[in-house]
TrEMBL record:
PANTHER family: THIAMINE PYROPHOSPHOKINASE. InterPro entries: Thi_PPkinase, Thiamin_PyroPKinase_B1-bd, TPK, TPK_catalytic, TPK_catalytic_sf. NCBIfam families: thi_PPkinase (TIGR01378). GO terms for molecular function: ATP binding; kinase activity; thiamine binding; thiamine diphosphokinase activity. Residues 139-203 form the Thiamin pyrophosphokinase thiamin-binding domain. The keyword Flavoprotein does not apply. This is Thiamine diphosphokinase. Its EC number is 2.7.6.2. It comes from Streptococcus vicugnae.
């Protein structure tokens, strides 16, 4: 299994380096170079870097892919598609998915809404110091606790109902109430939580 790190254009205050492949998304490419990390892929329209910075990225990247600013995908979506084309079994961690433009953050939170990325949703994790975002397809999902993290929240894509079992606050037919996001729940004694979703996907 290939472990891929994608460095996007949001805040990059906390990241790890134990990966096989490093991907820079637009200005994230420059961040990798400035931190003396490999730049295996550089992907984006590169509208957030100067001409000199772009030339440096072109020179240093093993694979350089420049897209038109007028495109259907965000730079991060485009980078993920290129990664899964080459490494279809990869486990991908995205750093810098938060803390920048809010429209980019929202796009990152709903990556499985792209039909090309939906088949890979279980292979994508968004991570920073305070957050770990994962995606689960409809059905019964077993959510494992994360070291150092107490709280867990659930959001269903679309209007599907969900149930929560094994958490501090369970949700089933006896106490069901409808919300877009069920936030600030907690793991009990570091035990897994089971969430069942009728359709769509779980964030």
């Amino acid at each position: 299994m290939t472990k891929v790190a994608v460095f996007a254009g949001g805040q990059l205050l906390d990241f790890s380096t134990g990966f096989d492949v490093f991907v820079g998304v637009d200005r994230g490419s420059l961040f990798l170079l400035e931190n003396h990390l490999p730049l295996d892929f550089a992907v984006g329209d590169f509208d957030s870097v100067s001409k000199d910075e772009l030339q440096r990225i072109k020179t240093k990247a093993e694979i350089f892919i420049q897209a038109s600013p007028e495109k259907d995908d965000t730079d991060t979506e485009l980078a993920l598609k290129k990664v899964f084309e080459q490494y279809p079994e990869a486990q991908v961690t995205i750093f810098g998915a938060f803390g920048g433009r809010i429209d980019h953050m929202m796009s990152n939170l709903f990556l499985p809404g792209d039909p090309d990325l939906a088949p890979f949703m279980r292979q994508i994790t968004l991570r920073d110091k305070q957050n770990c975002i994962q995606f689960y397809p409809a059905g019964s999902c077993r959510i494992l606790p994360e070291d150092g993290m107490t709280y867990v929240s659930f959001m269903a894509d679309g209007d599907a109902n969900l149930t929560i079992d094994g958490a501090k606050y369970n949700l089933d037919a006896s106490n069901f109430f409808k919300k877009k996001i069920y936030s600030s729940n907690e793991f009990l004694d570091q035990q897994p939580i089971t969430v069942t979703l009728e359709s769509g996907y779980l964030i």
